[in-house]
Amino acid sequence: EVSPEKLLQLLQEHPPGDTFLNYGTAGFRYDAAILSPIMVRVGIVATLRSWQKQAPVGVMVTASHNDESYNGVKIADPDGGMMTSDGETLAVEMANERDIQRLLQKIEQFKTKSDFVPIIHVGRDTRTHSPALCDLVVQTARAMGSAIIDHGIITTPMLHHAVLHGNREYLPLLIPPRPDVTGYFSLLAQSYHALLATSHTARDRRAPLVVDAACGVGYAHAQTLHQAIQDLDPTHRPLLVLNAPGTGPLNEKCGSEHVQKALQPPTFYDATADLSTQYCASLDGDADRIVFFNVRDDQMRLQDGDKIACLLCRFLQAEYQALQADAPSLPPIRLGVVQTAYANGASTHYLEQVLGPEGIVIAKTGVKYVHHAAAEHFDVGVYFEANGHGTVLFGPAFYECMAQADTVLRGKRCRGSVALQRLSVLPALVNQAVGDALSDLLLVDAILQIQGWSPPDWDAIYTDLPSRQAKVLVKDRNIIQTNENETKCLSPVQVQEELEIAMAEVKGRAFIRPSGTEDVVRVYAEAPTRALANQLATKAAEIVF
Ligand code: 16G
Predict the structure, then answer these.
(1) Which of 103, 183, 305, 398 has the CB geometry, 3.0–4.6 Å to 388, for a possible disulfide?
(2) 329 lies in the same domain as 350
(3) Is residue 14 domain-resident?
């Protein structure tokens, strides 16, 4: 129900404070106490965005891997991806506008004559303040005439999925639209089942995959997924989901951020039995990223986003080659990977062997940048950040190739037709809107099973170069300017020269970049030994300071 009075009341009740509010790499993210004015304005921006695009959009209330005191909000565009930069500019403008009249005038500029009703999908994580904050988005958007599809407590990727599947024109043909939450689970479970059905290797699926849900929103959904898989076939590998919300503090000493950054296994707050740590995965607080790990001889081995990217690329390359061997007339497909400057040098080297140098692109840190680069450069574009954010994108040339392969191989029993089945099921198993911990979990497990690999086999494909990260507090992080993909510092000019000298001394690699989420400059260094990596990181931090 459109209500200008209600809108005015919400704006008056929630004036922005003095802090300049920025839509960072992954949306607005602050201490929950200052978020209510932002939520009201996000309700407005999402409505304007839906108006502008004449299609449903999404709003997710979460602060991902941050602790419970934080919260945040991000907007998804009609294609299910993160809102593009023009929308971010508008969001920042609206969030910082204190003059209510000017704000209302701005809204008027967006009004069109069409009778299109804006539609907004909303979702939220398990934080205590999420319901109230989400409600402000909903009340504001409704006061502007939007229709709300409230998905309640869901993971970030589920929200992106709901938006993509609700806008069929963006959905590739091979994927059956499953716009609701039940559809999300059945799509993942059925495609996992279908992918595994292409392999007849005897394998032991009794060992569970232990899932650390970071005491967050992934817990309930990983369990639902487990049930959906077991309902299809009870001999599938069970997911043993641990770290329920409330058993321990959200993201504290658990979850992918902790495991990847501290290189330590998580605390399993709710584990009563002595559980296996042979095959485990950690999600983050909104389940949009994942890392795997296992513990042997008291030593934790991490399989991070880089290692996931390598596993996927190797599998995709092998399947495509098998397909082409039986159907040589098929057009070539550009298969490639996008990494960030944080990718361990050993992973990049491995990927060069698999894909050739033309198959690798390094892009700026942040999901929206790597996602965009994967879509732009490749027909099958894998992207992963070392921290576990990632997915695979399949472009039109891929679907065309599958259609041609189907004509050539129809009715034939050969390795190529197995490859065709496998490749054809992937676009449905993978969440192409955004990286998705639950989808990535099944994808990795299915590939390991098909290849007959144990977690240590996967781990052994390469050994990470020792690396070290640090952060430097500076007066103004924006003094540091880097090239497009953040591998080189452009300004101040002497910084890069000094870094080059430091790198040459230890035969290592280092870069610095202003953080997109905190007021710090980040430093990354890697070198042939741990001592040298530490030395290079210290030196690089001194150069910045
Ligand atoms: C955000 C990004 C993540 C990136 C990180 C870098 C999303 C969903 N998340 O968490 O991809 O790695 O920021 O943080 O885009 P930084 O700029 O502070 O180093």
Answers:
(1) 305
(2) yes
(3) yes
The three-state secondary structure class of 209 is strand
Checking 427-430 for CB contacts under 8 A at 24+ apart, the result is 427/172, 427/174, 427/175, 427/394, 427/398, 427/399, 428/174, 428/175, 428/176, 428/187, 428/190, 428/191, 429/187, 429/188, 429/191, 429/192, 429/195, 430/391, 430/392, 430/394
Residue 460 lies in a domain: no
Atom 2 of ligand 1 has which residue's CA nearest to it?
366
**Domain shared by 299 and 394, yes or no:** no
ipTM score of complex: 0.97
Q: Is residue 465 in contact with ligand 1, taking CB distance under 6 Å?
A: no
Same-domain check for residues 274 and 205: yes
- Cβ of residue 367 lying under 6 Å from some atom of ligand 1: yes
508 in the Ramachandran plot: left (φ > 0), alpha (ψ -120 to 50) or beta? beta
130 part of the active site: no
Decide: 389 in ligand 1 pocket, CB within 6 A: yes
Residue that terminates a domain, selected from 275, 304, 333: 304
Residue 147 lies inside a defined structural domain of this protein: yes
Same domain, yes or no, for 59 and 89?
A: yes
- Same domain for 148 and 8? yes
Co-location of 287 and 334 in the same domain: no
Beta-carbon-side half-sphere exposure of residue 183 (alpha carbons within 13 Å): 16
| pLDDT tens per residue across span 342-401 | 999 999 999 999 999 999 999 999 999 999 999 999 999 999 999 999 999 999 999 999
Catalytic residue among 36, 50, 64, 467: 64
- CATH number of 21's domain: 3.40.120.10
Nearest C-alpha to atom 11 of ligand 1 is from which residue? 366
Same domain? For 299 and 321 the reply is no
Is 300 in the same domain as 323? no
- Percent of the chain beyond pLDDT 70? 99
